[in-house]
Design a protein that fits this description.
399 residues, 48% helix, alpha+beta
Length: 399
């Protein structure tokens, strides 16, 4: 049975994280986001990381055996709701490396784990993931063209990727490549770990997103040669490994969206109570009350959907239908919450005097990354309809 309450033992750590974000992250957030692509080695980020470590807040969701806090999955789901209030907090608290650390822990050979795993968890090196390509529709990853051919003891990689997030600062990129040209599409791809200083790994540019450079790099792989042991997991299992990475990751994304939406909601309500127009506060106007009501109901609905999906994953279910529902509904909820908050702030809302304009730009991408809305709608609907073949049903987890 789904328990909607935050577990009592999680409440204090959530409050501690919230205080850390409000006291340490918010004061430097604007400065860091304005120069985001170059923040990795800057003193201010290092200082935030060390403060988080000193406060016992660092890498809480990483398994203990790789140097993390070992927080159980469902507990960490609730923590991410607070972490999401600031994208800087994701980095400052060590959350950014969780999925990459788990991939290395589960699938990398011993030498790679020894070389990168502890430094990755400690925030001493940073990861990158290369899947999306500019010349094919990445909503259908079976079209990916980047290939790797085994020559002797080396993989030779050729291809073109973009949106390899933070590749410019990363120690390595885990790249999705076609290694089995004669296999069925979903068994044709593998993941290979490529150090970013490897000859032939050529960064073309930091792709501007919604007007700003934001660490989404375009990379050309020109006869990049790496040892065959850099293969992550078995050959032809790239999609399976990606699903292991993306399933829980989408839960954390959606919980962090809730944190962003809550922040926007707080700003909107504060503004509605303080700003006066036509002789009364904005909050006394019916249209603004509708904004408040709609946003509150959408946040709560998204939260319940996400917690239900998280519980199913925690029980060992892939929860593919539920993941599709929260990915699409959550992205819409996030956009709406920030959009209404901007509207209530008026002209102030589109300036950099509040965090809302930056939040708005980033929120738009939520409908695209980790699978666009259209693909999640299509795949979830097909799975639901499939349950009705031969007299089946889909009961929304109520039985």
């Amino acid at each position: 049975m789904l328990n909607l309450s935050i577990p009592k033992h999680v409440v204090p750590i959530r409050q501690k994280i919230l205080s850390f974000i409000e006291d340490e992250v918010y004061p430097v957030e604007k400065e860091l986001l304005e120069g985001h692509a170059g923040t990795w080695g800057k003193e201010i980020i290092g200082s935030l990381m060390q403060k988080a470590k000193d406060a016992g807040l660092w890498a809480l969701g990483h398994p203990k055996e790789i140097g993390g806090g070992g927080m159980p999955f469902m507990d960490y789901v609730f923590v991410n709701e607070v972490v999401g209030r600031s994208e800087v907090a994701v980095l400052a608290l060590g959350t950014h490396s969780l999925q990459d650390s788990i991939m290395l822990h589960r699938y990398a050979n011993e030498s790679w784990r020894d070389k990168y795993l502890r430094p990755l968890v400690e925030g001493e090196v940073f990861p990158s993931f290369g899947m999306t390509e500019p010349h094919v529709a990445s909503s259908d990853p079976r079209q990916l063209q980047t290939s790797a051919v085994l020559e002797g003891d080396d993989w030779v990689i050729n291809g073109h990727k973009w949106f390899s997030t933070h590749a410019g600062e990363a120690a390595y990129t885990t790249v999705m490549v076609r290694t089995e040209p004669d296999a069925p599409d979903h068994s044709a791809f593998s993941m290979i770990v490529v150090p970013t200083d490897t000859p032939g790994y050529n960064i073309v540019r930091d792709v501007k997103v919604m007007g700003k450079a934001d660490g989404h790099y375009e990379v050309l792989y020109d006869n990049v040669r790496v040892p065959k042991d850099n293969l992550l997991g078995p050959r032809g299992q790239g999609f399976k490994i990606a699903q292991d990475r993306l399933g829980p990751g989408r839960i954390f994304h959606c919980m962090r969206w809730l944190g962003q939406a809550q922040r926007a909601f707080d700003l909107m309500c504060k503004r509605a109570n303080e700003r006066v127009a036509f002789g009364k506060s904005l909050g006394e106007h019916q249209q603004i009350q509708k904004f408040i009501f709609d946003t509150a109901s959408e946040i709560q609905a998204s939260r319940l959907l996400t917690l239900h999906a998280a519980q199913k994953i925690d029980e060992g279910d892939e929860a593919r239908i539920e993941i599709g529902l929260i990915k699409v509904y959550g992205a819409s909820m996030l956009h709406n919450a920030i959009d209404r908050a901007i509207q209530v702030h008026g002209a102030l809302g589109v300036t950099e005097d509040t965090p809302l304009e930056g939040m708005y730009r980033h929120a738009r991408a939520a409908r695209i990354y980790d699978g666009p809305d259209e693909v999640h709608v299509m795949s979830s609907a097909r799975r639901i309809l499939g349950n009705y073949v031969d007299g089946g049903t889909f009961d929304f987890g109520l039985r």
